[in-house]
Amino acid sequence: MSDKHDAIDDLLLERRKFPPTESFKKDAHVVGTHLYDEANTDYEAFWARQAAELVEWTEPWHTVCEWELPFAKWFIGGKLNVSWNCLDRHVLAGRGDKVALHFEGEPGDTRTVTYAALLDEVQRFANVLKGLGVGRGDRVNIYLPMIPEAAVAMLACARIGAAHSVVFGGFSSQALADRINDAEAKVLVTADGGWRRGEVFPLKPQADEALRDTPSITAVVVVRRGGIEVPMTRGRDHWWHDLMAGADPVCPAEPMDAEQLLFLLYTSGTTGKPKGIMHTTGGYLTHVTYTHKYVFDIHPETDVYWCTADVGWVTGHSYIVYGPLSNGATQVMYEGVPNHPGNDRMWQIVEKYGVTIFYTAPTAIRTYMKWGIEEPAKHDLSSLRLLGSVGEPINPEAWMWYHEHIGGGRCPIVDTWWQTETGGIMISPLPGATTTKPGSATFPLPGVGAEVLDDEGRIVTKGGGYLTLTHPWPGMLRGIWGDPQRYTDTYWSRFAGRYFAGDGAKLDDEGYLWLLGRVDDVMNVSGHRISTTEVESALVSHPSVAEAAVVGANDATTGQAIIAYVTLVGGASADEQDLRNHVAREIGAIAKPKTIYFTPDLPKTRSGKIMRRLLRDVAEGRNLGDTTTLADASVVNELQKRAAEAPTED
Ligand code: WTA
């Protein structure tokens, strides 16, 4: 056990290592340390080279970076168009017939969209938006299912210099109204409904509910996807297909200033009003193109890439729309849930399209673990060559399961740490160059500076603390829409001159970074600051456990006591005492949960993050606060009932 005074104690030790294989290295973009060496010498010059090589500009920049803490500008004076970089340049280079999107609808319908077809739709829709009065600097709200029209609408905004604000289709009408009003959006793009678990979920009725109280919206465009009957308000609402049929097919891409607002994306956080995170044009496109190319080792001629995120999240923005299309990749886009019609839907899709690169979230991986290895075993997954993970710390056992049962033991795994605010991946292995360890995101990418600090802001070289970023990067947020003070307070005031990500992290004796979750998720047990992630990983390493959520609840003797919520692998059984002893063996007696609740499911946000705040409320017997971002509220109600009944034991 490490020293008591660490900001966060470092308890779990993982010794397994996976160097890149010779066969992967043979064709990898990066195998040595040259990118790191170059970036360490001069990170601005490094990013400038990426911007010049990976992105096409209509006018060069005169200043690489202007840094007036905490406000950064990149590639000042440069002009470019994001949609031109994602579409026109590939078509002009003779790749118009290359598939951009293999769309797979949940009911099994498919669409193959080439780069030329996508460019055509984007130009038409850009003209539709212009016809509705949208121009440079305006905001457009997008509330759509996972269908190609989502990408078309986003790229059409980029083409004419309007900023989009995408709201995840699973959000309520209230959440939509709040976001429309904060952004003062002019136009809303939505659909009648989308497919989810074999049924159509209505979107237009939700949108109508929101639109009762959104004075800035002057027009609504509705995609017909679900085929359900929906009310249309005359003069305001238009069918997508009607407007597209009459639209001029030519809309030249207008050169945009590098710092033109590209999009707003709202993050809910745990409390308070959602923050409209601002991303701009040149730096963001450089960052996502660079990271998508090197982290996923993209070879656009041969790879079939699939990111399972929704376009409503930043992962969908950066690694479904902008990164992959800028790199000219071919990708799969899937509309629905992973268990319709069967628990093997994802693996069936991998086999069908010959997916080579698969990028998903730990919460999904743990769900697949729960469903059992028979599901992936039904399909030929031999096309896969690289796997990725994002969104939460990946527990070492989930990493191993992913490696063995999805990757067939041959695929490197890139565990990518980043945030809505960072715009693109910041900490990750480079798959041909980095020896990975299960559960570690390894090292900052070339061009990124990250350090772990203790409570007093001193640099930690081994052990736990707070993750900070030491210098600006091109994809960084430019602020919070309408609230510069909140931007400074949230990210730049905890540690002088540094970006504070809100995450805990530790460094091991070889300098590997291990993410420990949000710092609000650190427990204080008898003076030891223990990360919920490490206790969860210890629980998940037990063969019967599929998923675990750990929280600290107030405790008269120890300050906080560790309470665990555990979901077992399908068909397995486990005894509370046995699991407590297992944790003691893995990381030490101090980390033994005081109480373990067994539950078939854990409360999660709609993007799959465990809502520990709610579990803390449950454990401390409080009334539940805001549950609007919860994916399935019945899970917490059930846990609450049981917490009230169960005696706690020691
Ligand atoms: C967490 C998602 C550990 C982290 C791209 C971060 C991770 C928050 C990882 C941002 C990872 C994301 N390992 N934790 N590989 N990736 N996180 O804004 O707590 O939805 O601060 O962006 O997710 O979530 P967001």
Commentary on this structure:
With 650 residues, this protein is α/β, with parallel strands linked by helices. Among the domains are: 111-254, Rossmann fold (3-Layer(aba) Sandwich), CATH 3.40.50; 526-645, 2-Layer Sandwich (GMP Synthetase, Chain A, domain 3). The chain has 20 helices and 31 strands. It has an 8-stranded mixed beta sheet, with helices on both faces. The protein has a 7-stranded mixed beta sheet with strand order 5-4-17-16-18-19-20, with helices on both faces. Strand 4 (99-104) and strand 5 form a beta hairpin. Helix 3 (43-54) packs across helix 10 (282-295). The radius of gyration is 24 Å and the shape is globular. Bound molecules: 5'-O-[(S)-ethoxy(hydroxy)phosphoryl]adenosine. Residues 267, 313-315, 389-393, 415-420, 441, 501-503, 515, 518, 607 line the site of 5'-O-[(S)-ethoxy(hydroxy)phosphoryl]adenosine.
Question: Any descriptors?
Answer:
650 residues; alpha/beta; Rossmann fold; GMP Synthetase, Chain A, domain 3; 8-stranded mixed β-sheet; 7-stranded mixed β-sheet; 20 helices; 31 strands; globular; binds 5'-O-[(S)-ethoxy(hydroxy)phosphoryl]adenosine
